[in-house]
Structures are given as structure tokens and as C-alpha cells.
Please model this.
Amino acid sequence: MTDAEHERSGLLDDVSLRSLGTHAVLYGTAILMAVPYLYTISRSFQPRRFLTSPKPFWIPPEITFEYYRHILTQSLFVQWTINTFIIAGGATLIILVIDSMIAFSLTRLDWPGQSVVMGVILASFMVPYYMNIVPLYTVVSDLGLVNSYWGVILPAVASPLGVFLLYQFFRDIPDEYEEAARLDGFSTFQIYSRIVLPLARPILASLALFMFVYNWNAFLWPLIVLSDQAAYTLPIGLVNLYQGNITTPGLHMAVTVLASLPLFIVYLFFQGEIVRAVQIQGTGTTG
Amino acid sequence: MTGDRLSTSTRRRFIAATGVTGSIALAGCMGGGGSSGGGGGSDSYTITFWELFSGGEGPVMKDIVQKFNDEQPLDVEEEVTINRQRTPWAQYYNKLYTALTSGSGPDMAIMHAAYLRSWNNVIDPIGDYLETSDIESDYLDNHWDLVTVEGETRALPMDLHPLGGYYNKDVFESAGLDPESPPTNWEEFQTAGNAIVDQTDNAAFSQSPANDGFGSWRTWSSLVKQQGGTLFDSDWNPSFNNQAGQNTSQLFWDMTGDMGWSPQTTEADWGTNAFSNGNLGMTMNGTWYVASLSDVEDLNWGFFKPNVAPNRSQEAVWADGHTVVLPRSQSRGQRKSELAAKAAHWMTTENPEWGARAGHLPAAADIRESEVFQNSPFYDKTLSKYLEMAENDVYFYQPKVPNGDPTSQDWYQWLRDLWGHNYENPQAALEDGVSTISNGIKE
Amino acid sequence: MGLRNRFTKESDHARQTVFGVRKETVEGVAWSLPYLAVFSVFLVWPALKGMYMSLFDWDPFVPSQSEFIGVQNYVQLLHDPVFWNAMQGTVYFVALSVPLLVLVGLGLALGVNKNVKGKRILRAIYFSPYILTVAVVTLIWSEVYSEGYGLINYYLGYVMDSPPGWLTSTDLAMPALAFMTVWWLVGFNFVIFLAARQGIPERLYEAARLDGASTWRAFKDVTLPQMRNSILFVVIIQFILQFQVFAQPYVLTGGGPRDSTDTLVYYLYRSAFSQQQYGYGAAIGYVLVMILVLIAVINFKVIGTND
Model:
């Protein structure tokens, strides 16, 4: 074997070894990350005596649907799901409409003061959300919105994120489309609805899904604003089941699975859009 | 005042008009229409009512309110509906106080008697709307005392829920103890605990099944009082860093230390899990525990009076009670307040189920004689013994501190950390407790 | 904006007026108004009001009777041991979680970007915990961490006599919360790094290879500089988010054992919503902002201007 050959095969070995190592690390991490899920799902079906034994069972030796039945019939779970859906869905819808309107106005219309407005919106990114909760609570309370859907939705809608993302995207739409449309006698509304919105559909979808997931999961603010348990969102309801008198681990696990299910289905179908919404934030590109 | 009211109702109408909110969240506010104007010839009233019950108590309260709304038991011309809102205990008092300070509180609310002094600024004395001398005799004396603060009747008493001792008969049996003779004093308690640890694989004792701060306080303060110790001096300075307090802290420390009665853990619900799995011999908890224990299959449990402190100089058992209050409110109006007071009277005197199903000691004098109560599944096992303790006058009430949040977990975290040996020694925990609670009262 | 504006200014549309005001101005304002209204009432106004409240001994019953106390709330904070303990806890949590969140995210992204099989599945799994609500995350991990019947301690039981209480030991509770947080949020950073890495033109690596650069040099000279903006974004956003940690200690540990997992936002929450000290709570909020602005500036200085 010549030196050159030796070197080449060594290199090959090296490459494939390294690739093997990469695979092992990546898949190892993936399995470790999935372990809590699998464990949770499995335990949500196990009768109590298996759950409280110190030895964990990965595959349920015996299956029970008791916890699921209990949660769906004996708790406010269904009500909480509806509340969460209304709040997350309502906030998302309003965000899409009014954020796209102002982004359109800031990029496609020309009016004095618009750069100041954009400056203020950008600066508001520096305001950490939680810092605001105390004064925000007094504002929401003065408006009589405590313990109401609007009390959760409106502060969520004030987030500048959507404006920022849409602003970037709308700004990059070539002027030619708009010029042609104006020449054809399109009104401002028609330009918005027939040209800008259709072009922006992918980013609107990403924004919508991201905002939906984000508001579905919101925790601290709903915790502060909602007091009646019938008005709770899922995250708040879950924690109260946990902190309340229910100490059956099986119920915790089943409610965990049930509460995650809607978003997991969304994730399964729209993974690409959600991921893209995150990537746009982080890389500033819409591609 | 009138201006205020107008703007409030305009605001509500605006909110209602804007949609979704209406469905659940504001149902209470909107029901009853102009009733908040008071005396405007309106004949239907909706009383918003906040409560905090869960576990075995929640469904009972739900039924009571349902019964009220269906049967209209008040002898009045108006139609009165109670709109019940439940907030879990962990957040209840924060939410209630926050709502009351911002003027969006309920018309009527459940409150632990412990709050009746410190929250004086947010409640209306019930005597403002009821002739208290007419109804005083409807309640037992000790319950009436519970709601009387600074010579003023601030609320109507609903129940008393003292601390009790619970033990697992099967564990007693396998430790060679008589399952029908639970401990009645320190010597027997000590013997039982040691036998369980020596003869079985189970833990002997948990200071509180939830393993939380306030739960630990119930047990700890009972043991301190039994040794003749005090909790506060007459100026509301914590005085429990006394001989009895030091002894009890040392005892807690040793139970998870040298005595080996329990693992040294602060894990939440450790005792709840262990007791319902049959891995724990004894624990102490309030009356409400009874309902949840009865739900556990195959658990052979019994009750004992928690008078088991070493060097006991007196019998003393922690107790607090639920009461019904009318929070201070600008929008309730005179007539509605009177109706709410009547509703509170009905709720606290005509509902034996509250004792029978939820396991508490009812405040109303005649309920204890009622069949529903005496036929309660818990009567022989626990209620009758709790009643004996009431007759022997061994209960002391959770101190009604002048300020702060007397049931807040923050105040008692040090006991949990004492139990888990997260301090250098028990004395350090005790001193931390004194400073935490005195800061809490000063705030 | 400049170029286009110059064009639209000359268009027909721009020259129309409504009551003497340029029509486009009227439209521009009208289209902005819905968002600006919500933005002003629920974000800008509270931020200003918070500054104002923090200067008062705020009376929640009758706000108009609040007593002006100047910077007294801030002075009190400086002497408040609970505040400093919460600060210490927060800094500790950030110091544990942020480096892991960034490095693990970056490592996974660079790994997946290589020639591996099943990229889509890997991406789906890595990102998936991010869509869970924190309430679910804490419930799941309470079972994993449990001292008595937890998953970890069962297997540790094989190698040690008494495995520790992950959430009940003063030394381990905060690291346990931080580790759980990395599991929950690392996917966010991962997908950003992945997109940034995929956006680097391959020719840059080819050029580096022709220059005989080692893998390490290619990473240092091409990957890192090209990804700088994304790294900057991720680092800043993670600092901001993790500094505001609340739900993990609130649900799992209640700030214990022995206050070892207390955090600033948790203390803010307690001050305002359980002790009704709104002015004090608002002051904590403002201290938080100052810290975060400072961190952002430092980050920009260190990562942003490397050239």
C-alpha cells in the first residue's frame, strides 16, 4: 500500500467515522428530547398502581382510559379549550388585519410622520413584555376588561412583532406592481387587497400560525387577568389542576397530552410555516 | 356616586356590545340589568359570588347555589339569582383583593375567618345589612366568636375546619400495633411511629400530606400550643420563638433526621401520594381531607385527635373556618346588599350537606342535630370526634393578624424547608420564620 | 422607503386632496389608526404609566390619593434582600440557560446542515417542544424530576444509593429548571441557526478550502462571521426572554427550596399581585428594563462590531 493510498483510505474512514459520529449525536439528542413525550403519553394510560411504583413502565402493562374520561367529563377542560381557541384565534385574526393595514400604510403610502411612527414601534421592542404588567393591569382594570376575553386579546394584539415582520416584507415588494395598478385605476384598498395581500400570503400564514401558537401558550398575562375558572385558558387551567387537590399523576399526564394535542396537530400540518416565522425573525430574510 | 354608577353601566353596555366578552366572563355583571341602581322598581337581582372550593367541597357548593337559584328560598318579592365564580385557592385571595381594590369585586364572597381583621378595609360588616341580634342564635357560640372581630360581626360563619390526625390501619397492623387504637398522647404517638419505621418499609409520619408551608404550620402551631407556647404577643409580634416553638422545630427536624420517620424531602404532595398508596402510617390535615381519602380505593384509614405533642400541658388543635362576607362595593346598592346578606344567612344555616358531604363542622346550631348531618358517611369516623373536640373547647383559631395575607404560603415556607433540612439547624429556620412573618404583617 | 416615496409623490393619487389635506395622508393615517390605537392604549401608555407609578406609593383603591415618593421605591429595592436574592437567582438562571440554549442550538444546526439522513424528522423533533405551553412543560418534567418516583431517579438508583431531589435541593433546583428550559426552547434557536447556515453561499467554503483552510478555520473565518447577525439576534432575544423567567419557578418550586429559585419577574408578580404594592412592582419592572437595555448594548458591542 502506497502512502497516497493509505492516506486516502484513512481519510475515507475518517469521514465515514465522523459522519457516523454526527448521526449518533444528532439522533441520540433527538431520542433524548423525545423521551419526556413518550413517557408522558405512556403514563397517561396506566392505572394508578403502576404510576406510583418507583419502577417506571414504558409500555403500559394494562391500559386505562379513565383519566381521559375524567378530564373530558369532570373538569372544565372543554370550556378551557374553547376559551383558548377564542382568545388565540381572535388575537391572531385581529393581528393579521390591523398589522397588515399599518404595515401597508407605512410602506406603500406616503405621509408625514410615518418614519417617527415606525421608530416608536421599533423602539417598543425594547420594552420587555413582563415589565409592563403592573401598569397594564391598572389600565385593563380601569377599562373594565378584567376577567374578559378582551382583557387578554387586546394586550396581545398590541405586540409590535407582526408589524415589524410585515413591514419588512411589504417594503420589498417591487413598486412596478403598484404603479401598474394605479394606472389601471385601482383604489388604495384594491391595491392592498388584490396585490399586496396575495403576494404576502406565505408570510401572513407564517405570522398567523406563530401568533396563534404564541397566544395559545401565553401564561403570565392570562393568569393575572382571568379570575373565574370558567374563563381560564388551557395553560392556566392545567396549572390549577396541578396545584389543586388533584394529585393523581395519571390525570396530570392525560391533561398534558390532551392540552398539547390541538397544537401538535397544527404543528404536524403547518410545521414549515411555523418554523419559517421563527426563521424570518432570526435572519431577517423572508426566503 | 350616581355619576360613578352611570359610567360603570355605560361601560358594561359598551363591553357587551363589543361581543365575545359577554358570554361567560361578564354574565354576572350584565344579569339583573338595572338592579344595581337599587330601588328602581326592578324585581330581579343577580348576586355575583366568589368561592374557592375544590376537591370534595366544590361540587357541594355548586349544588347549594343551584338549589338557591331553583328554589328561591328567600322570603322576598324579588327574584334573586346567585352567579357563582370559582377561583382556585392558590390564586383566590390575590385575585379577590386585586379585584376589590380596583372596584371589580363580587357582591358576596367566601373568606377564611383568618382574614377578617387584616381585610377589614375591603369588607362591609354584615351587621350593616342584617339585624345581627336576630340571627345570632342561629349559630353556635364558638362560630359566632370566629366572625366577631373587635366587637363587630364582620361575616356569617359557614363552618369550622380543624386539623385532624389520620392513620393507615393496615400499616399499623403490619407494624404490630393495634389498628383500632390510634395514639392519644406523645408516648403512644412515639411508640407507633418507631414501630412503623422499625417493623415496616413505610414512613411513619408526614407533617402535612401536601408537604406545603401552610399545611406544616397547622400541625406545627398545634404542637406548639399543646406545649403551652404562644404564637403572637398582644402587639402581633410573632412570639413563637419560645421554648415550645424551639422544641417543636427540633422535633420536626428530628422526624426527618435522627428519628427517620419520613424522608427528608420538600417535594410537593409527598405525603398525599404516600398516604394514598399505603406507604405512610400517619399524617395530619384538615377536615376536607376526609372526602378525598374516601375516594381512594382499598385504603383502610382511621382518625385520631392530633393532641400528641411531647410535654403536653393542654389540648390545642388548629382550626379556621369559612365565612361568607359582603365585600365593600360601590355598585351593589342597599337592596342588593340586604338580599345578599339574606342569601348568606340561608347558605350558612339551611345546608346540612355542607357538613355531611364536605366533611366540615357546620356553624348553624340546628344542623348538627339534623338527620342529613348525622347520617353522613363520615359521622362516626371523623365528624363525631371533631365534635367532641369542639365540645371540649380545644380548638384555637388561625390568628387573625392585623395585616397581610395570613394563609399565604410565603409566610410558612420556612417550615417546609425546616422539614427538608434546608437550614443549618432548626433554630435558624425558626428565626427566619419570625422575621418573614413579622415582615409580612408590617407590609 | 425613499425611492418609492419620491415616485408616489408625483402620482395622481398623491395629488388628490380631502378637505385640503392630501388624500394619501388621510389614508395613511386612517390605515394606521386601528393598530396605533391598540398599541398606544395597551403598550405605550402602560409603559409611561409604569414609570409614573414607580415614583409613588401607589394606592390601588384610590389611585389619585397615591403618595409621591420620588425614587424611594428604587432606593428601597437596593436595600431589599428579597430583591437581591431574586436578582441573584435570575442571573444564575440566565448564566445556566442562555449559553446552553445558544451553543446546543448552534451545534444541532451545524450538525443537521451536514450530510445527514432524515433532516426533516430531526428538525421536527428538535423544534417540537417549542410549541408546548410552559404549563405542559412543567407538568411533564415534574414527573421526570420527581424525587420519589421520577424517571431520572429510578435509573440513577442503579448507580447511587439515594439519588438527589432535583427540584427540592437548594443546589440542584435552579439548574434543573434551566435544563428543562433548554429542552423547551432550544428548537427556536436551532431553526434560526439552520436557516442562517443554509444562507451562507457554498462558494465561500470552496474558496476557503482552496486556501487550504482547516474545518476549524472555515468555521472561524466563514461560518461565524456570516452568521453573526443571527447569533446576535439569538443571544439578545434569549437574554431578554430568560431574564423574564417566571412560570418555571412559579409552577414547579414556588421559588424554593429556601428561595433558591426566586426570580425577578416572580418577585414582581408577588409584589404587585399578592402584596398590592403596585408602585414597587412597577419599579422592579423598570429595573428589569434597564438591565435588559444594558445587556443588549453590551451584546451589540461584543458580537456586533467584530470587524
Summary: The radius of gyration of chain A is 25 Å. Residues 147 and 197 of chain A are 35 Å apart (CA to CA).
